Amino acid sequence: MKKDRRNFLKTGSLAAFGLSGITLIPSSVLGKQTGHIAPSDKVNLACCGIGNRGAQIINDLYKTGLCNIVALCDVDLGAPHTTEILNKFPNAKRFQDFRKMFDEFGNGFDAITVGTPDFSHFPITMLAMSEGKHVYTEKPMARTFNEITLMMDCAKRHNVVTQMGNQGHSEGNYFQFKAWKEAGIIKDVTAVTAHMNSPRRWHGWDVNMQSFPKAEAVPSTLDWNTWLMARSSHDYNKDFINGQWRCWYDFGMGALGDWGAHTMDTVHEFLDLGLPYEVDPVMLKGHNPFFFPMSSTLAFKFPERGDMPALTMTWYDGVDNIPPVPQDYGVSELNADIPAASTGKIQPAKLNPGKIIYGKDLTFKGGSHGSTLSIVGEEKAKAMADKLPEVPESPSNHFANFLKACKGEEETRSRFEVAGPLSQVFCLGVLAQQLNTTLKFDRETQRITNNPLANQLLGGEVPRKGWEEFYTL
Known about the structure:
Layout: H1 3-11, H2 13-17, H3 27-30, E1 43-48, H4 53-63, E2 67-73, H5 83-88, E3 93-95, H6 98-105, E4 111-114, H7 121-130, E5 134-137, H8 145-158, E6 162-164, H9 172-182, E7 191-196, H10 224-228, H11 254-263, H12 265-270, E8 278-285, E9 295-302, E10 311-317, E11 354-358, E12 363-366, E13 374-375, H13 378-384, H14 398-406, H15 416-435, E14 439-442, E15 447-448, H16 452-457
Parallel strand pairs: 1-2, 1-4, 2-3, 4-5, 5-6, 7-10
Antiparallel strand pairs: 7-11, 8-9, 8-14, 9-10, 11-12, 12-13, 14-15
Helix pairs in contact: 7-8, 8-15, 11-15
């Protein structure tokens, strides 16, 4: 980045001037200069990560008709998976390094998308927010607990619009869960099961693997050094890119970070779960220090919250780790609101991704993403039919919600203050998987109290030289 901007950001805005008694100009006068966009204008978007999931985000935002795609940034502009978006937006400026995009075109866009691997969300998002840009960042927010804390703080200090990309948080399940909770239909919940049991990319790997895969030649079009960002140096291997990054503790968040954001999100927000006091790896099959287990059962324990009882949320993944279901559960229907897993189709013969919510009097089953809940048991469902509140329709999908929020017309539903603690739940779960041990967590001090190594890993490793500044923005 440019030195003058670096110095300004590090020393603080008003403090950098060494002045007192400064009269601030109201943001309504400055308009776009402070991040506000006139309702009549479209949001100018710069997009980081333009292939695979990144491409889907760009297309969904563009389909709203509320934005212009003005810049495209990807570490591999010559890869087959990036050509579709490059061809679709030929007039957008192109960059291979997001830092150069901000240096050379920072005044040309209002907001960014971050559709890159989990570990690389943090530096891009932090730089954007520190420069007053609104951000749409894919789930989970970041790879480490501390990075998420810094992101939440940065968003608050710079007063920018944020949205995490768990798109079902703007669909039917969000509004239904909210209405049913407020009406007292969902109450006295003591246990929740969340599950995703389709094959994952690392299934079938040798669980006795003792090292990372061997180095391969870096593709001529790929900027591998920038791909690594703040992570420690790794040799290139094809099993680190194009979605394979999700397999490795060093780069991704496994099945939990991938699908937990689509199955646990409404439970977490509307039951005010916050952070757990304990995470227990009940079962890990095929534990390996480099990549995620073949199957996992994790129990997240939450204390009483106001008038709500203590709750245990249990996560199940793995093709042979199907959770138990209550009597009269019925069929796990395929639902158009649940997209296929990245490795192929959801398998209807098993339990489709979703959740089971156990209250004192009622049990609910639901799918993933925007899939709505139903009451388990035909007789109980009939008895409750006339007591159910009217559920409002969503005024905007997740992508329009973000862009309208940039224009001051709505508030984002998965803003960082909401999505951050949820993502930190995943971080604690992944640490329990990686270390294969129970973690005791102090919700007040936000420290792991029974395992010094795990507590140190809340902050992650020291960033690579040259990437330290993103932790100070």
